[in-house]
């Protein structure tokens, strides 16, 4: 079985949905994981935020606009009244569920229910499109087998057992459709795998069935060696290892969800990144094979805050770092980079939700400074400890850029730098010039 995930732009219009059909109808058994149509999740977030703010009338107006959008899509997507009716009925039912929440006191759980409607609408519409074209398929609800545990992590045993049970209950179909992103939590409530979670769904299900390959279809021809939105003359990386791909995905390459690499890596399942707008391009293949190369790619991660703790108590002391990390653990805030000296420690985070509380507790350990609007630049390449002379070009390139932190040695595949976000574009272009165009 091959797993094929299609992102929001890949199913973002009737024409795009129709163009997916020949990609999945190739005679093989394919599990098709679908995201919401592009723009839908943003609209649903707006509706949820309006309800949370008590602005029911504005929320109802937004729901009406979304209903109009989908009605137009349905009119264009189907040629028969039978399937137009089925799609209208399903979409109206799902949007009516959101309408029903407008009269209730909003809670964060309602947001999860609202967000789930995007994937439920796109997968149902695509399923009807295949049936209208006399293509044999089955739609399996992700809420029947996708689940996260009490810590918000995927319950891989539950997922594998229940997904196989669903497959066994619907044998003989070459095309199996399900939703990405959405799941249930440990209490059985509707939940999700966060933004970009459809990639994660595809990887988890691919691992559950030992898929031959996991394909992530989007609107770009795979990993580029720099951000093509900001840098000219970038090139597609045709082959990359799981470890290198994980670094790129985590540090800003938007084409792949960071968490989606690990399930495939554990089962050694190749992951291929493909472009629905250019399906004949080979894309990027991610495998366990590692091809050493001084510099392979550069990625940037915005929205970073740097926290610096200065304390004379660190000098010749043990247990200090444990106390620091325990505070971040208390607020479930992951740390990206760490740099230390005898009397200070600098830490970066990309989740600022509890930053004020964290800073308050850290003040018991020493003086605290916070600097926001920071960006991590990650250079992926060959940084093995026994390799000599691979980094000078980086610092030569960034001679005019103020470097706030450097993380080197934690990974043999990357070197990371912290800079002001205002310098990001210049930094990416300079690195491209010195690392790839020399």
Which key phrases capture this entry?
Carbamate kinase; alpha/beta; globular; 13 helices; 438 residues; 2 domains; VC0802-like; 6-stranded antiparallel beta sheet; 8-stranded mixed beta sheet
What number of domains? 2
The order of strands across the largest sheet is: 3-4-2-1-7-9-10-8
Helix content: 25-40%
Report strand %: 15-25%
Task: Compute the CA-based radius of gyration.
Answer: 24 Å
CATH topology of the largest domain: Carbamate kinase
Number of discrete helical segments: 13
- What is the name of the CATH architecture of the largest domain? 3-Layer(aba) Sandwich
Low-pLDDT regions: none
Number of E strands = 16
CATH top level of the largest domain is Alpha Beta
Shape field: globular
Q: First CA to last CA: what distance?
A: 43 Å
- Give the averaged pLDDT, no decimals: 93
Walk me through this protein's architecture:
With 438 residues, the protein is α/β, with parallel strands linked by helices. The protein has 2 domains: 2-218, 3-Layer(aba) Sandwich (Carbamate kinase); 296-435, VC0802-like. Helix content is 39%, strand content 21%. The protein has helices at 14-24, 40-52, 56-77, 81-101, 108-132, 156-169, 197-208, 242-250, 261-267, 320-330, 355-362, 392-397, 424-435; strands at 2-6, 30-34, 138-139, 175-179, 182-184, 190-192, 213-218, 239-241, 271-275, 284-287, 295-310, 338-340, 344-349, 367-381, 405-407, 414-420. The strands form 3 sheets. The protein has an 8-stranded mixed beta sheet, with helices on both faces. β9 and β10 (284-287) form a beta hairpin. α6 crosses α7 (197-208) and α8 (242-250) runs antiparallel to α9. The chain is globular.
């Amino acid at each position: 079985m091959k797993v094929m995930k299609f992102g929001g732009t890949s199913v973002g219009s009737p024409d795009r949905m129709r163009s997916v059909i020949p990609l999945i109808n190739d005679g093989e058994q394919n599990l098709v994981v679908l995201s919401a149509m592009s723009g839908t999740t943003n609209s649903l977030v707006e509706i949820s935020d309006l309800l949370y703010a008590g602005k029911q009338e504005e929320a109802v107006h937004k729901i009406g606009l979304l209903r109009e959008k989908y009605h137009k899509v349905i009119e264009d997507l189907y040629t028969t009244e039978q399937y137009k009716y089925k799609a209208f009925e399903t979409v109206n039912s799902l949007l009516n569920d959101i309408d029903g929440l407008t009269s209730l006191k909003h809670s964060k759980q309602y947001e999860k229910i609202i967000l789930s409607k995007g994937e439920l609408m796109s997968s149902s519409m695509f399923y009807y499109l295949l049936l209208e074209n006399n293509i044999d398929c089955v739609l399996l609800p992700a809420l029947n087998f996708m689940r996260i545990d009490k810590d918000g992590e995927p319950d891989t045993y539950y997922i594998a057992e229940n997904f196989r049970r669903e497959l066994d209950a619907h044998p003989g179909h070459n095309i199996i459709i399900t939703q990405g992103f959405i799941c249930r939590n440990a209490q059985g409530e509707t939940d999700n795998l966060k933004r970009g979670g459809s990639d994660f769904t595809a990887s988890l299900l691919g691992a559950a069935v030992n898929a031959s390959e996991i394909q992530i279809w989007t609107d770009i021809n795979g990993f580029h060696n720099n951000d093509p939105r900001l840098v000219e003359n970038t090139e597609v990386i045709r082959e990359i290892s799981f470890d290198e791909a994980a670094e790129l995905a985590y540090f800003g390459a938007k084409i792949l969800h960071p968490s989606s690499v690990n399930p495939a890596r554990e089962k050694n399942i190749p992951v291929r990144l493909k472009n629905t707008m250019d399906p004949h391009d080979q894309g990027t293949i991610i495998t366990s094979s590692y091809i050493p190369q001084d510099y392979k790619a550069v990625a940037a991660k915005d929205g970073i805050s740097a926290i610096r703790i200065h304390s004379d108590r660190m000098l010749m002391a043990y247990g200090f770092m444990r106390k620091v990390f325990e505070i971040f653990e208390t607020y479930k805030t992951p740390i990206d980079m760490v740099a230390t000296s005898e009397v200070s420690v600098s830490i970066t985070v990309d989740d600022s939700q509890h930053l004020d509380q964290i800073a308050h507790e850290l003040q018991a350990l020493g003086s605290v400074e916070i600097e926001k609007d920071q960006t991590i630049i990650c250079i992926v390449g060959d940084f093995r400890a026994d390799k000599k002379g691979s980094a000078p070009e980086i610092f030569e390139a960034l001679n005019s850029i103020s470097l706030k932190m450097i993380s080197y040695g934690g990974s043999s595949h990357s070197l990371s730098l912290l800079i002001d976000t205002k310098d990001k574009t210049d930094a990416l272009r300079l690195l491209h010039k010195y690392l790839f165009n020399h």
